[in-house]
Amino acid sequence: MGDKINLNLDVRTLQGKKVRQLRKDGIVPAVVYGPGLEPMNVQAAQNVIDKVIREAGKHTPVHLTIGTKKEIAMIKDVETDPVKGLTQHVAFHAVKQNEPVNAEVPIRLINEGESEAEKAGLIVLQALDRIEVRALPLHLPEALEISIAHLKEAGEQITLGDITLPKDVHFVEHATGHEDADEEAPKLTDLVVASVYEPAALEAANEATAGDATIDAEVEADNGGDSDQTSQAEETKPGGKAQDEPKQSNVDANK
What we know:
Elements: E1 5-11, H1 19-24, E2 27-34, E3 37-45, H2 46-56, E4 62-66, E5 69-80, E6 87-95, E7 101-110, H3 116-119, E8 123-126, E9 130-135, E10 144-147, E11 157-159, E12 170-171, E13 192-197, H4 199-208, H5 213-222, H6 248-252
Parallel strand pairs: 1-4, 2-6, 7-10
Antiparallel strand pairs: 1-3, 2-3, 4-5, 5-6, 7-9, 8-13, 9-12, 11-13
Helix pairs in contact: 4-5
């Protein structure tokens, strides 16, 4: 964990169409909700809340102060104006610091450019850039890092199993149906994070798919097609089933 991320929020009295005036004045409406907590309508200055969104993403807890109340929350949802790109609304899901939560965290390759493979002109492509983990909110890592300095030859791979997880942090494995009961389901730790390729092989694959295969097609091939880990269902993202939350319709009513 890095420095604690703090955010002061003001109680919001305007709701519905009236929040348009807030946005015109550079204020972003938000809501804070969670288990055992009555949803609270809140607001903060655009530049302040945008800074928190950049720093926290959806995987780092934010320490909220709302008047005399203090909550620890994850950013559950951010609505953005499709034309202007401005933040329109933020939903914070309050969590309990002594109860685990699920969150998708980035995977970072380190020591890029230092491997024998890269020095020999080979290419290291990252196939998986985020993964869902489970941990106490204050123990969630900012990112999982893995070195690629040891890679030497085309065909070598780095898998999730090569990543050393921080203490009390665990990968979240989702059950998937398998058509053949006799076929052993792939292990989560076997998911490919990065692979070494010959430039010519990538160029050939790129030409075969009209220029779209440099990364996407190779990634899909490495991990056997679409992976549940790279397209998490909304309910398993930060503030999901790990800690109960009210129906989204009840939250939306408080915008």
